[in-house]
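Reopening this one. Same input as before:
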Amino acid sequence: MTSYLTERQAVIDGCLAMNRLGINQGMSGNLSHRVDGGFLVTPTSMPYDVMTQADIVEMGFDGTYLGDRRPSSEWRIHRDILRARPDVTVVLHAHPTFATALAVHGRAIPSFHYMVALAGGDSIRCAPYATFGTQELSDHALTALEGRLACLLANHGMIVLGSSVQSALSLAVEVETLARQYLYAQQFGEPVILPPDEIARVAEKMRRTKYGQPVGGNDAPEDTARPRS
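Same output, byte for byte:
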């Protein structure tokens, strides 16, 4: 009997949403979800709109897998990130147009806009190029993601991390939007870059409000709006 039905459906829904949101095209992306003792990952070379829960591949951190479907060629990235980052539940990999346009030039996204802080630091790094599906690529990605929730992959695409499929999708949309804005801004020259201390302030404010939603109690910032009495 197939296990982790809720998580399997979340992976399928996330893949369909990637294409619907313009984060990915065709079958070029892949998605994983942590489960007990391992993770679920999309199968290789299978259109998202025909995937069923049984097609999602269950893998162990030792690289073994269950079922008849072979895992995504990028399974090492998913395995290594989930193994190294206990704070992460979902790994999303895609080839969005604007982020990839920067990645093919080996360009990171600097803190030209305060929303860069959503990815966990004052830049969204670009990992060096390595052949897809290799341990070298996975190693590069892990380094680029240190202290971060997103990175670009040179001549390749994007990786985004999340606590859920929805949070990973939301961040992927933000990163692709930032990439588009950065490319447009460069038409007028290199944009002004916000300093690290400002990005740190922004990140703390985002953390305390869960980006717009106060945590509550004493953790709410002083400028939180109050209802009328």
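So the earlier flakiness isn't reproducible anymore. For the record, The CA atoms of residues 54 and 137 lie 28 Å apart.
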